Input
Amino acid sequence: MPRIAANLTTLFTELPMLDRFAAAADAGFEGAEILFPYDIAGPQLARAAAAAGLPIVLINAPPPNWAGGPRGFAAVPGLEDRFRRDFERSLRVAEALRSRHIHVMAGRAEGPEALDTLVRNLAWAAERAPHASLTIEPASPRSMPGSFLTDYGTALEVIGRIGAPNLGLQLDMHHALSITGDLAACWDDVAAVTRHVQIAGWPARTEPDPQAAPLAGLLAALVASGYRGWIGAEYDPTRTTQAGLGWLDRLRGVVA
Ligand SMILES: O=C(O)[C@@H](O)C(=O)CO
Ligand SMILES: [Mg+2]
Output
């Protein structure tokens, strides 16, 4: 049965980051994602996660400028040195937090040179960190304008060209629906290389509804295909996080 992680960058934001782990554990989550854990010392985060009994499932590699800027640069020609330095940083943090996955973002770029840059950077990263699990996540252009990685065909090509056992896909249902409009067909295409799944309500990206389309279909497909990874809840709560958590028990009923 897939386990459910709270994305602590988007959930429990009523609380300081270090208090979010305990709140997520009390609410019934079994793990945590943090998009950018670079503002708080790793040992402090690791202690808070351990005290709450929550493994950290996913972090993102550092963005050059999270506050309004591009959120990554693995596909940006000319920034390869910066990519390597920052990847080393994400590795140190991932090791301190024992994060299961590192999500590497492509950043704003276009064209064949960007594709080659992404392949080269990710191939280097996968070889540099054979024990780390790396993911790439196609993002809808509406959410991330200008991002290089906005379709699953390109993601599959990149993963296939590199052929590293520690590189795979992060399927975020919000992006998958925005990009393809057909979550079931998208899952069929990418299931074999998917290492991590994220869910949210559709189309508003608020609380997920496990018993209604499109999430009900995705959950059925995950169970049918024997998906053994985590499901991360990455959404914007309608009111407080706690007030909207009724979906969590209902989801367990569906995937049990
Ligand atoms: O879907 C998203 O926005 C995230 O998973 C992410 O990593 C981009 O910041
Ligand atoms: Mg996501």
Summary: The longest strand covers residues 167-172. The domain at 11-192 is CATH 3.20.20.150 (TIM Barrel).
